[in-house]
Amino acid sequence: MRIFRYKREETLGAYNFGQYQIYVCMLSNSKGELSKGITVLPSDSIIEFPFPLSESSALQLSNYLSSVGGGEIPQNHKVKGSLANLFTAAYFKFSKIKEGMVKGRISLSLFGAARTAWVTVNPSSMLACSQAINKLYGASNA
Asked: Can you say whether the dihedral through the CA atoms of 97, 101, 102, 106 is positive or negative?
């Protein structure tokens, strides 16, 4: 039984973001059609939140992760669900870099109810995730 209309298929990479695992992957919908995107898996759950992303949305996420991983702390970033997952969202907010690690929070929202976790992420994980998104979408490194 599917909770979402998309599920993870071929995985290009898995990245540790504290209490979340982020997969850069191909997603299939209930008709078997493939889309590019990410899934976010909370460490205390077996349910992945899928986010099929347009190329522009994916590159915005990639640029955000690259900026944070490179030492900048830009504004928050929101990944919205597609039409099939209309009421899902992932919010990324990183506030500081301390002892070589990026600290902040990630929130997953479903129908307006959010679960937030404070995370400590290695900048190399963010940069590797950014590069995998670029590779998946055929973009040069931003």
From this structure: negative
Looking at residue 3, what is its pLDDT? 56
- pLDDT > 90 fraction of the chain, expressed in percent and rounded: 44
Distance, in Å, from the CA atom of 135 to the CA atom of 142, rounded to the nearest integer, reads: 11
Q: Are strands 113-121 and 6-17 parallel, antiparallel or unpaired?
A: unpaired
- pTM, whole model, 2 decimals? 0.87
Q: What is the pLDDT of residues 52-78, one digit of tens each?
A: 888 988 999 999 999 998 888 877 777
Distances 97 to 33, 42, 102, 142 between C-alpha atoms, Å: 40, 22, 4, 21
Tokens 């976010």 belong to residue = 40
Cβ neighbours for 93, distance < 8 A, ≥ 6 positions apart: 76, 77, 104, 105, 106, 107
* pLDDT above 80: residue 79: no
d(CA 122, CA 17): 8
